TrEMBL record:
Nucleotidase that shows phosphatase activity on nucleoside 5'-monophosphates. NCBIfam families: PRK13933.1, surE. The keyword tRNA-binding does not apply. This is 5'-nucleotidase SurE. Its EC number is 3.1.3.5. Residues 3-190 form the Survival protein SurE-like phosphatase/nucleotidase domain. A divalent metal cation binds at D8, D9, S39, N96. It comes from Aedoeadaptatus ivorii. The lineage of its organism: Bacteria, Bacillati, Bacillota, Tissierellia, Tissierellales. GO terms for cellular component: cytoplasm.
Length: 253
């Protein structure tokens, strides 16, 4: 199977190397990833300058790899349109340093790269691993991602609409992960606020207080209990119920 692999941490990040090593054992992988980190930039695209593409080497990875001077979404679209010789069957994005669970998926470049794949009609998978003091268990996350993909591959690839699977993996050795839970999207992991400094220039720095109370059945709930989580995502923000309600308001006017 032909796989385009990207991320938002940059082509040099250890997480993408771990995922490439696992996937290239059974698949034809080409890496197309940002030349610099683009965490938290969601579905941004580059419109005011040309993208620079360079062939690069990833330590321990046999697959061809390219850096792109753009965002994760840029990498997917440019990869499919110009860089990859044949249209990929699947897009993989990750392994990200830090969870993309709960409402954090809105801000995630990792998840947005997978969503860009679905917009192009390609089934896609986003993979993220818990961040602990600047480190993550990338090998375990990559192994879990491959295990999930192998299990659902046939149905996933033949589903009528291109699916996006969002995978999160705890900071544990593979053997200590309790299992895989299909989960709903939870809330934020933090109560976000700005820390303000005024020394001639007013500066606002984003901070967060950790939450520990997450609703049962959500990704955050299971991750805190040492399960890996799997959540299907869809692109689209129009609320069909509210559309009907708005139409009724106009009909009444």
């Amino acid at each position: 199977m032909k796989i385009l692999l990207t991320n938002d941490d940059g082509y040099f990040a250890p997480g993408i190397r771990a995922l490439a090593k696992v996937l290239e054992k059974d698949h034809d992988v080409i890496v197309v990833a940002p030349e610099t980190e683009h965490s938290g930039q969601s579905h941004a695209i580059t419109i005011n300058r040309a993208l620079v593409v360079k062939e690069v080497e990833l330590e321990g990875v046999q697959s061809k790899a390219y850096s792109v001077s753009g965002t994760p979404a840029d990498c997917v679209r440019a990869g499919v349109d110009k860089i990859v010789p044949e249209r990929p069957d699947v897009i993989f994005s990750g392994c990200n340093l830090g969870y993309n669970a709960g409402m954090d998926i809105i801000y995630s470049g990792t998840v947005s790269a997978a969503l860009e794949g679905s917009l192009l009609g390609i089934p896609s998978v986003a993979v993220s691993a818990r961040w602990v003091e600047g480190d993550a268990r990338y090998d375990a996350a990559a192994k879990i991602a491959k295990e999930i993909f192998d299990k659902v591959e046939d149905a996933f690839m033949h589903y009528p609409e291109p699916m996006v699977l969002n995978i999160n993996v705890p900071y544990l050795p593979y053997e200590e992960i309790k299992g895989i839970q299909v989960a709903e999207i939870g809330d934020n992991a933090y109560d976000y606020y700005f820390e303000e400094e005024v020394e001639g220039v007013r500066r606002l720095s984003l901070r967060g207080r950790a939450k520990t109370d997450h609703a049962a059945g959500t990704d955050r709930y299971y991750l805190e209990r040492n399960y890996a989580t799997l959540t299907p995502l869809v692109y689209g923000m129009a609320d069909p119920h509210q559309i009907l309600r708005l139409k009724s308001w106009f009909d009444e006017a």
